[in-house]
Structures are given as structure tokens and as C-alpha cells.
Amino acid sequence: MTEPCKTHPHHDHEHGPGCGHQPVRHGDHVDYLHDGHLHHPHTVDGKTHYDEHVIEVSETNPDGCDHRITACCDSGHIHGPGCDHEAVPHGDHVDYIVDGRLHHPHGDHCDDHGPVTLV
Q1: For residue 114, is it within any domain?
Q2: What is the mean pLDDT of residues 96-108?
Q3: Where in this protein does the record put region Disordered (predicted)?
Q4: Spatial contact of 101 and 79, defined as CB atoms under 8 Å apart
Q5: Number of folded domains in the chain?
Q6: C-alpha distances in Å from residue 3, one per residue of 6, 41, 61, 102
Q7: Any residues with CB less than 8 A from the CB of 88 and at least 6 apart, and which?
Q8: Domain contains 58
Q9: If pLDDT is split at 50, 70 and 90, which confidence band does 48 have?
Q10: Which member of 20, 28, 62, 81 has the greatest number of CB atoms within 10 A?
Q11: Closest-CA residue to 38 (of 59, 15, 58)
């Protein structure tokens, strides 16, 4: 039996090439970053809805502390709502995409949670 979709409710925007949201390679497909969510278009019985996806914690995208101060954080930048970096769900938390890498604010530094492929 397939697991039910975790869908984004009340979604009135169609994602696809040129929709204005950052496409991100996620496994064998492309998702779209929209307001801190990874949306994946999914059609069932002729109707499209948007699944909520999360970048999985893996060897490529770990979620641990690496005690590195990344360049953006070294300059005093603080990641969070309203900063100029896209928020993306990763495991059970939110990271921010900086130069194709996941940054996770952690105390006085940012942990590098690995690469993402922007399409």
C-alpha cells in the first residue's frame, strides 16, 4: 500500500519551469521552493496537487554540527525569516541555501549541511 501524500493545502499557484520559484533537484525529480516549502507537483485522477517534500538527512546532507563558521555568518549575517537566502526544509529543521549549500544557524556559527542542486 502506498503512503498517502502530505499535501500543501489551498495551493492556487502552478509550479513549473518559469513559475518564479527556485527549482531544486530532489532525488529523481524537481521540486519548487515556495515560502520555505519544497513543493512537488503530483497528479492523481487528473487533478494536480502539491506534495510537501523535505530534503532527507543523509551522508550528502548531514544534520550535525561541524563547528565551521561559514563566510556569510562570519560577516555577521544571521539566517532567518526575512534574510536574503531561500529557506528549505531539511530533516526536522529549516536550512538556508547559500551558494548551492545548506546552511543551518547554530549558536555563533552556521553548520554546513551539504550541497543542493539548483536547476
Answers
A1: yes
A2: 88
A3: 1-22
A4: no
A5: 1
A6: 9, 16, 24, 28
A7: 24, 33, 36, 38, 55, 94, 95, 96, 97, 102, 116
A8: no
A9: confident
A10: 62
A11: 15
pLDDT tens for 22-38 read 999 999 999 999 888 89
Instruction: Give the separation between CA 94 and CA 21, rounded to whole angstroms.
Output: 18
Alpha-carbon gap, residue 115 to 102, rounded angstroms: 6
* CA R_g for the chain: 15
Alpha-carbon torsion, ordered 113, 117, 7, 88, to 10 deg = 40
Q: Which grid coordinates belong to 1?
A: 500500500
Which 3 state secondary structure label does DSSP give 78? Answer: coil
Cell of 70: 561559514
Q: Which domain holds residue 103?
A: 71-118
For residues 115 and 63, the answer to whether their CB atoms sit within 8 Å is no
**Residue 95 in domain:** yes
The predicted model gives 89-105 an average pLDDT of: 92
